[in-house]
Structure formats: C-alpha cells, structure tokens
Amino acid sequence: MLFCATNLYRYEKVNEFLRKRGYFAFYITFQSVPVMNDKYSRLQIAIHWLVFLLVVVAYAAMELRGLFPRSDRPMINMVHVSCGISILVLMVARLLIRLKRPAPPIVPKPKPMMTGLAHLGHLAIYLLFIALPVIGLLLMYNRGNPWLAFGLTMPHAAEANFDLVDTLKQYHVILANLGYWLIGLHALAALAHHYIWKDNTLLRMMPRKR
Ligand code: HEM
Ligand code: HEM
C-alpha cells in the first residue's frame, strides 16, 4: 500500500514536470494512470481553516462580550450568530465533499485502532459543529423577537416559547463547552502526528506551496 501510494505520488510529480514543459503527449500517457492525492483538495483545506477562524471568532464573541459596553451587545450577538450560521453551511458542505472524496492516505500508515479513533473524533466534530448552530438558530427563532444575522432581519416565531428557549440554551452551552475539549484534543492529535509520530497527517491539511 505504501509502495503504491509512493509510486502514484511519483507519477503525479512526473506529470507536473511534463505539463510545465509542454510535453503533452507524455502528459496524456501519464494522465491515464489513476492518481491518488497525497493531500486534501484546495477547497477542503480552505474550508477547514476558514471554519477554524470562524469558530475562534464565534467563541471569542461570547467569551469576551463582558469586556464591551452593553450598547455593543447587539453587534456582538450579530457577529456570533453570523459566524455560527456560516459554520453550519460550511460544515454541511465539507461533509458532502468528504463523502464523495476519500481522505488522502497517511504515510506511514497508523495502527487500525488509531485510524478508528480518528474517524470517531472527526464524526463527533461534524455532529457537534452542525448541532450547535442548529440549536442556536432554533433558540433565536423561539425567542419571538426580531434578530439580525449578516445585517439582515431573520425570521422569528409569532409568540415566544420561554421554556423551550431555556432548554435549548442549556443544550447550546453544554455543546459549546464540549466543543472546546473536542477541538483541543483534535489539535493535540494533529500536532502529535506531526512532531511525535512524524507522519504526513498535518501536512495533508496545510495550504500548498506555489
Ligand atoms: C459553531 C457555532 C457556535 C458556537 C461555537 C457557539 C458558542 C456559544 C457560546 C460559547 C456561548 C456562550 C455560552 C455561555 O453563556 O456560557 C453561546 C451563546 C449563545 N449562542 Fe452560540 N454558538 C454557535 C452558534 C450559534 C448560532 C448559529 C446561534 C444563533 C443563530 C447562536 C446563538 C447563541 C445565543 C442566543 C447564545 C446566548 C447568548 C446570551 O446569553 O444571550 N449560537 N454560543
Ligand atoms: C475549530 C477548529 C477545527 C475544526 C472544526 C476542525 C475540523 C476538522 C474535521 C471535521 C476534520 C476531518 C476531515 C475529514 O473529513 O477527513 C479535520 C481534519 C483535520 N484537522 Fe481539523 N479542525 C479544527 C482545527 C484544527 C487545528 C487547530 C488543527 C491543527 C493543529 C487541525 C488539523 C487537522 C488535520 C491535520 C486534519 C486531517 C486529519 C486526518 O485526515 O486524519 N484542525 N478537522
């Protein structure tokens, strides 16, 4: 498997070399070889790091809101919900892309147990960062007041349902706190892959050099 991945990687490099020099005949020959990517796609990498930034801003808006005067609250809330809605859209998009495109192989290949744990961790991240903003949206809707996202007025229920809002808020807070742990573990695992096990896990998720 390792041999196969390395060979395909070499084909890709040869391909790139030939394409840059205009040797299209050879390029076509090499093109007919199925190529296994050694990295996530540009789009997957861009979405990964954009979501990371949005998550940082969504958390920061809530954690630091006490530092600002009360008159800034509507703006801070709007930043929070706008980031949250963007995260929801991007997480669903990346999940759909991921279902169509398998993850590139890790070299050297980790133990099956580690791969299983990683898949479980990724599934938990997808579920959490989809459920958290959905609960947030339901929470805002059921407050029954007009509210803003991206500067636009969003739909709301004709009447507030305070019991439901309280319950949703509790779930939102629990999931948000769980999110810190999941992301912390996820980032630690990525760094351990890079610095301790010295495989290509992290490099597969890094922007390509031009
Ligand atoms: C992944 C995205 C999101 C993250 C990480 C997140 C995180 C948080 C955090 C940490 C808090 C503070 C909890 C506390 O008081 O201890 C919070 C509160 C809240 N979030 Fe989110 N949230 C997200 C998405 C959303 C969305 C999409 C909405 C609504 C459209 C939303 C609406 C709210 C509301 C209404 C509160 C309560 C604010 C208050 O106390 O008045 N959140 N969120
Ligand atoms: C809010 C922050 C983050 C979120 C929501 C997030 C989410 C995800 C998800 C869902 C995947 C799985 C991709 C797939 O479907 O194959 C992933 C992969 C990955 N993430 Fe993150 N991530 C975050 C932060 C980070 C940070 C801070 C690092 C680095 C220190 C990192 C490094 C990686 C790496 C290396 C992979 C590839 C892992 C593999 O394929 O086994 N992520 N991330």
From TrEMBL:
Keywords: Cell membrane, Electron transport, Heme, Iron, Membrane, Metal-binding, Transmembrane, Transmembrane helix, Transport. One of its GO terms (molecular function) is electron transfer activity. Residues 40-207 form the Cytochrome b561 bacterial/Ni-hydrogenase domain. It is found in: Cell membrane. The chain crosses the membrane at residues 45-62, 74-97, 117-141, 178-197. Coiled coil: none annotated. GO terms for cellular component: plasma membrane. Its cofactor is heme b. The keyword Electron transport applies. The keyword Secreted does not apply. It is a multi-pass membrane protein. InterPro entries: Cyt_b561_bac/Ni-Hgenase, Cytochrome_b561_oxidase, Di-haem_cyt_TM. GO terms for biological process: respiratory electron transport chain. Belongs to the cytochrome b561 family. This is Cytochrome b561. It comes from Kluyvera georgiana ATCC 51603.
